[in-house]
Amino acid sequence: MIAEDRRAHWNRVYSTKAEKERSWYQSYPMTSMEIVQSLNLPKDAAILDVGGGDSYFVDALLDAGYTNLWVLDISAQAISNAQQRLGTRALDVHWIISDVLDFNPEVQFAFWHDRAAFHFLVDSTEVERYVSLAERVILEGGHLMVGTFSDKGPKRCSGLDIQQYAEASMVRVFNQGFNCRWYREEDHHTPFDTTQNFLFGCFERT
């Protein structure tokens, strides 16, 4: 799927579905916050949320006192939803409307967070571009957290094909520039009483 098609698709999703009609909805991102807090990052560390949309991860980070936050999403509607929810607190966040594959920041990040965006890249060339970008913009000793559907999870999401991952396949994708610190599987319970099995991996930039 080309970038323009992706943009139109996700703007339509965020315009027509209420947040509790989207399978990835979480009122509080427990796993993501456990991971970022386990890293003992300074409060001014640069944190990037890839595909953050209008998730509540940025809210939780602000509540925890983090001050250098960047949220990237291809959907302008998703970003607008989050900004409206946050009100004046949205002024404390850097918002980027872009396909992650077109992202070209002038800063480097201590923590790259991606819960359920990466698995929409089903073309190997796009996967390689994503990994190359992460290697370039994550500080040495910085961290990458990726959450994807596991090989026991769904094969499609929001009308799109996804790429499932197991521990070995996820590690293989990132092993050139990162060391895997840990991984785990976790069931996500959707707002409509279904269960999706996720794989989370945390990697350190070498």
List the helices and strands and how they pair.
Blueprint: H1 3-16, H2 30-38, E1 47-50, H3 57-63, E2 69-73, H4 76-86, E3 93-97, E4 109-115, H5 124-137, E5 138-149, E6 156-157, E7 160-161, H6 167-174, E8 178-189, E9 195-205
Parallel strand pairs: 1-2, 1-4, 2-3, 4-5
Antiparallel strand pairs: 5-9, 6-7, 8-9
Describe the protein's architecture and organization.
There is one protein chain. Helix content is 31%, strand content 29%. The protein has 206 residues and is an alpha/beta fold. The strands form two sheets. The protein has a seven-stranded mixed sheet, sandwiched between helices. It has a two-stranded antiparallel ribbon with strand order 6-7. Strand 8 and strand 9 form a beta hairpin. The longest helix is centred in the first third of the chain and has 14 residues. The relative contact order is 0.16. The model has no long low-confidence stretch (mean pLDDT 94).
User: How far is the N terminus from the C terminus?
Assistant: 31 Å
Q: Structural class of the helix and strand makeup?
A: alpha/beta
Helix content: 25-40%
Strand order of the largest sheet: 3-2-1-4-5-9-8
Overall 3D shape: globular
How would you name the oligomeric state of the polypeptide chains in this document? single chain
Q: For the residues shown, what is the average pLDDT? A: 94
Number of helices: 6
Low-confidence stretches: none
Q: Rg from C-alpha positions?
A: 16 Å
The largest sheet is:
7 strands, mixed
Residue share in β-strands: 25-35%
Overall strand count: 9
Order of helices and strands: HHEHEHEEHEEEHEE
